[in-house]
Amino acid sequence: MLERVGEPLSIRDLKLDPPGPGEVLVRVGAAGLCHSDLSVIDGSRARPLPMALGHEIAGEVVTVGPGVDTLAVGDHVVAAFVPACGACPPCRQGRPALCEPGAAANGTGTLLCGERRLHDGDGPVHHHLGVSGFADHAVLSARSLVRIDADLPWEIAALFGCAVLTGVGAVVNAASVRPGQSVAIFGLGGVGLAALIGAVAAGAWPILAIDRVPAKLDLALELGATHALSAELAEADVVEAVRSVVDGGVDHALETVGSAAVLAQAYGATRRGGCTTTVGLPPPDAQLTIPAVTLTAEERRLQGSYLGSCVPSRDIPRFVGLYRAGRLPVERLLSHRLGLDDLNAGFARLARGEAVRQVVML
């Protein structure tokens, strides 16, 4: 649990209420460490505290609350970090990642119903993105959960709820990368490398991987990148390095770092008529400056993608299918297996850029 910004996470025994209407109690099997958790810990993304963190999980349904008919006890599930109400305008338009009640609940630290099921001796504890999965059990809205095959290992299954949805989804849903199109991926964390394997599966060529960490560049080449470029270069030099590989710039550039400066690089490396897609979450006060005329005169597109612009109930099963077919080597994203006692060390490692995806086994 995080009690104050900048402090280490503490392991606490909390009271967990039973699931209410439309909710489910899940025994957590595995939970991934993500920059979205780290941004709450270091204060770059303000959230109400105290908060139980963890939003990338897989687990088993233990109890179903009143009115739940989509899941049953014993089902294995993956959580998506936006609970979709199914009734607001974005949900009706097939864009559940933009669910308005889900976004409101995530911002205030509640479940979709507007309530909190976690408590300690001093009062309620806020939920993180409707999940709070760094725990042995969690109560979630059934609308946060997608059933998966029971034989999928927990540590692999968990990655489909955030890293894979966000990275692969940005490639196939938001950018709609087609075979033979060139792609540059800025940032090779869990989401960036998921985008990379998504680009490989989509038939992109060439695929350029950009990062500061040599080991991640090496892994990117092993996963199918055709070129690995160091982000240690000056900003203009990174753009020029991309353009030296693909004359005029790439068809698609994806930014996964959460940095306005890196997003500017990605935009600069995109060709005329190309598309720049960002999935990173920069600090709320970060500003981006680009040559406005290029949007019109060069027919450029600049777009965001949240949750990979996915429909989790549709995309998680199809991405799992691609994994089983050997088209998405999701297991290669898993760099560390941890226990709960290792959480703070794991987040320190993540902050230093020394991990891809770390998973707490519960």
Textual characterization of the structure:
The chain is α/β, with parallel strands linked by helices and 362 residues long. It folds into 2 domains: 15-161 and 329-361, Quinone Oxidoreductase, Chain A, domain 1; 166-306, 3-Layer(aba) Sandwich (Rossmann fold), CATH 3.40.50. Helices cover 29% and strands 24% of the residues. The protein has helices spanning 35-41, 89-92, 100-108, 154-157, 163-174, 190-201, 214-222, 235-245, 260-268, 293-297, 312-324, 343-351; strands at residues 15-16, 23-33, 51-52, 56-64, 76-79, 118-120, 123-127, 137-141, 145-148, 183-186, 207-211, 227-230, 250-255, 270-278, 301-304, 334-338, 357-361. Strands 2, 4, 5, 8, 9, 16 and 17 form a 7-stranded mixed β-sheet that branches. A 6-stranded parallel β-sheet has the order 12-11-10-13-14-15, with helices on both faces. Strands 1-6-7-3 form a 4-stranded mixed β-sheet, with no helix packed on it. Helix 8 (235-245) runs parallel beside helix 9. The longest helix has 13 residues, at 312-324. The model has no long low-confidence stretch (mean pLDDT 96).
